[in-house]
């Protein structure tokens, strides 16, 4: 995603209490979530993934190369990945996020990225509410 000019935040908290594995912001403000699944069992026990659709324009699953791809719904994006990189096999159906929600999420992203940078630059950084 970074190679295509998008900005990436890992472990992004969402307003509904969920946490996106990978939250991506495109140059045009497009919001993408990538949910990482390490195995079929990891996929089967995850009943929460449809909740992510409310918080992004595009939703992908990133799975290992040997993962049975037919398990991922056709309208959800599919990325296969290993220790060396990943490849998009299928793009998802775009479901535009409402403008007010997009603005709120972009502000949350900016604040989170700023706080993470502050922690790297200053080990004594204290997050303010």
What report would you give on this structure?
This protein is α/β, with parallel strands linked by helices. The chain has one domain. Helix content is about 20%, strand content about 30%. The chain is built from two helices and six strands; from the N terminus they run βββαβββα. A six-stranded mixed β-sheet has the order 1-2-3-4-5-6. Strand 5 and strand 6 form a beta hairpin. The chain is globular, with a radius of gyration of 15 Å. The two termini are about 30 Å apart.
Low-pLDDT ranges:
none
Q: For the largest beta sheet, what order do the strands appear in spatially?
A: 1-2-3-4-5-6
Shape: globular
Largest sheet: 6 strands, mixed
Task: Find the structural class using helix and strand composition.
Answer: alpha/beta
| Total beta-strand segments | 6
Distance between the termini: 31 Å
Q: Which radius of gyration do the C-alpha atoms yield?
A: 15 Å
